[in-house]
Amino acid sequence: MNVRRFQTGPRLGPAPAPSGHKGLKKGVYLVPSLFTALNILAGFYSLMATMSAFRLLGIGGAQQIKEATDRLDYAALAIGWAFVCDMLDGRIARMTKSTTEIGIQLDSLADIVSFGLAPAILAYVWGYGTTLQDWTNARQLAWFVSFMFVICGGFRLARFNVQASRPRPLAEGTPKVDKKSFVGLPIPVAGCLVAAIVHFAPTPLKYAPHRAEVIAIVMMVLIAFLGLLMVSTLRFTSFKSIGTGRKDARLVIGLIALVGLIYLYSQWVLLILVSGYVVHGLLSRGLTSITRRGGDKSSKEMREV
């Protein structure tokens, strides 16, 4: 006689996973946050280096000016390293599917420090803040321009987070979120353009040999223009789809060549890359507007015929 054994209690689902697998999963979620923390560290270092350079410029002297130049260059390079960490934390989070709401908000806080506050203060100390300090009310205007850069960057991050969490348009006329493009200039690009300019010529504009005041005014206008681009509705390529498809040896070779060029000629290559990205977004918008107007005109003529 066969005796069947029945389960007396309710079955509570599958057996729990081994503790080692659970620990590995938690570790995967921590990796993007680690790079976000490094992003904040780089931005904080940039701020401290810029403040140290500002103190040295106040003292004056050939040795102090040389040390201030070195620290301004270090501050610009730190913003570049923050950009690398910012790219890695997002890419790793998407590859490992470990994106979390806390990680998204932490990344935005890191960006406002590394690509908002740090570049704004760097531009002030290196450029117009110290060069135009003898002009009437120039110091107040310099403060205002740097402050507006930070505010526009914060608005850009807030708008991106809201649109990413609610993909549908929030109001009539609000642009839809497209993974292939950003709405408005990304704040990391705006911050890196400032850093690339300083890295290209780290000597403070106050001690530039020719037309220092003119260059300082141009720099102030550029900072204001970057702020406007961040809050605009212009679309800039996101490059998020690069590397997500099939493996391509040409992409790997291209990345190796790019890293080599940056190592050898970082001043020129970084400035050309960031400036080219901004110019590409502006030209693409202009070409799109021209094409759209031409299409509308052609359709109108066809309707009239």
Query: Quick check: average pLDDT?
Result: 81
User: In percent, how much strand structure appears in the residues?
Assistant: under 5%
Widest sheet, order of strands: 1-2
Radius of gyration over C-alpha positions, nearest whole angstrom: 25 Å
Report how far the terminal alpha carbons are from each other: 94 Å
Number of strands: 2
Please name the CATH topology of the domain at 29-238.
Answer: Four Helix Bundle (Hemerythrin (Met), subunit A)
Under the CATH scheme, the architecture of the domain at 29-238 is Up-down Bundle
Count of helical stretches: 9
What are the segments in which pLDDT stays under 50 over at least 5 consecutive residues?
A: 3-9
- Determine the fraction of residues in helical runs and give it as a percent range: over 70%
Can you summarize the main beta sheet? 2 strands, antiparallel
Find the structural class using helix and strand composition. Answer: mainly alpha
Quaternary status: single chain
Order of helices and strands: HHHHHEHHEHH
The CATH class name of the domain at 29-238 reads: Mainly Alpha
Shape: globular
Describe this structure in words.
This protein has 305 residues and is mainly α. The protein has a domain at 29-238: Four Helix Bundle (Hemerythrin (Met), subunit A) (Up-down Bundle). It is 73% helix and 2% strand. A two-stranded antiparallel ribbon has the order 1-2. Mean pLDDT is 81; it is low at 3-9.
